[in-house]
Amino acid sequence: MSTTLLQELQGELRRLYIAGSDLAAEDFRLKKLEPKLAQLGERAPVFKRMAEDVAALTGPSEPEARAAKLQDVSLLLNSVLSTQGRTAAEGVTEEKPESAGLAELTASHSYRQLAEVQNALSTSGGGRYEIVTSAYQQGLFRDLRLFPFAVKALNDSYSELADYAVRYILPSYGRAIVPYLLEGLNMQGGREEERRLEVVRRLGVDPDDKRSLERLVAAAEEGADKVRAAAIACLGSHPDFEERLLEWSLDKKKSVREGALAALAVRDSSAARDRLYEAFTGKDAVPAAEAIGAAPSADMIARLVPLYEERLRREHAGEDDRKSKDKLWKELEPFTIAFRHAKHPELERLFLDMAASEQDYPSLGRLDFSEHLRVMNQAAGYLEDADTDEALAVLQALEERDPLYLQFAFHATKRLRPASELYDRYAGTGRGRLREAVSKKAQQIQKKLIETLREEVYAYEGYVRKRLPRERVEAEWDRRWLGWLIDRNELELVAAMAVPGEPKLLPYLEQQIERSSNNYYADYIFTALDQGGFDEDTKYELLMRWMERKDWKKTYSVYRDESELLLRIPDRLAGSAADRLEPLAKEARTEYVKETMQEIVHSLRRRAESAN
């Protein structure tokens, strides 16, 4: 596609920015460009949208709307130009067929919707991560105008945001962006270039895209060390480069060898597996293990399991000193890395036997506590996911020997057994009958059980932790858990498990309100009230008690969740609430709290008056 037309439009828009958007009305130069853009729009929707925006810019409109439309057209144009590589010189045609897939993206969102995201990816400071992740989840990055900002995120000063762009945002555009990423690659660059290449590795390069493959090979041969390694890692799916990968895997530079080993694990040919095994049993054990762990193949795992078993069963005849322990862990650790995502019948067999007969594996007994736990946790985690009765029986026996493994047996039991059986095993037996665990082991078991319950009933959405929906709680959990948790004063879990019909719940929540006005507990208390199915009058009375229990002379803020609860009070109770809150506002120590409370009181009074 020629960029000449787009450059001409860019010049006209620049003129209007200087002269004023009002002059765009009936502007003959812009109107001359509109049909040409519409013609391009027959092949790519983004140009159809651009033609429509130019028509709206030159048509009848209010001044503010015309100024906003000028911003929209400019942003869309700049985004399209940025996907075409460097702007071509006047009159020179620059073909970029590789980026054609980007033209299928929309340009349907308003500038206001996009502005916050653009600002978040163009500045620094707190709160930006949440803005960007929320925008991605809402699909805003499907708008072409955000694509340049998504690429810009690769160099963001906040590494977690940059990594999010690598893992989620940029891969969502598909393979069409690979040529663009490679054209803009600085071969002597740093972390940003590594991230670019990580996206390329995730998406893969079209075997017919010779230009991109040439760029990769050039980066692999001429780039800075880390850029070389990242570029080499992208070549694993291309058989023509296998010999080069084998050569690079012997390079004197460690980073280059790491990239080659990562690519060979993807290659998974006989020669690639031989080289990986050689590296795994030599000086590059950990890099080879990481490569295998990222792309485990059945043949490679089958080759490593016997070696792992032999090392675990090996007897130690010499002195068991620090040096020998460190040497043993250096031999075993690569297996834990290589097997972290692996699934194989032989691996399952080994883990079943290890968990059931640990004494038959002398090397395990020589490991330090943390290293031993790492090995056994991997075995238990594998068996938890096996979803077989045999694995469940082994996990339950392992749990009986050591409560540290309770979580694995608990999760497996929950998946394979009825909800009532899960409760009976963990809370309805001697293990959970007493309100207070007495012995040290019983305390350890109860603590581990509560930690495990917390993992099950709360799920993370990004960085926000939320309880399971009530429907799932009622369908998946025995109702007796709620009473058990109330007896143990586990407010956080009571809020997660709260369902209608538990007689202990309301007295417990009333007690919590009397004991504390700490805002940390408010969300749990009022979540439990909502989920417990109580009527509006009950929830209103407890909310008022909560507010009245606060020491307003020491309160520096009215929290947002408290404000939201107060403003959701039913209209018929709004007047009563205002009467009870007004004296509290007068006691407040700071003007900010007084003003906030007074605004809430006024809002409640207006609603009460309108209801009457």
Automatic annotation (TrEMBL):
Origin superkingdom: Bacteria
Stated name of the protein: HEAT repeat domain-containing protein
Lineage summary: Bacteria, Bacillati, Bacillota, Bacilli, Bacillales
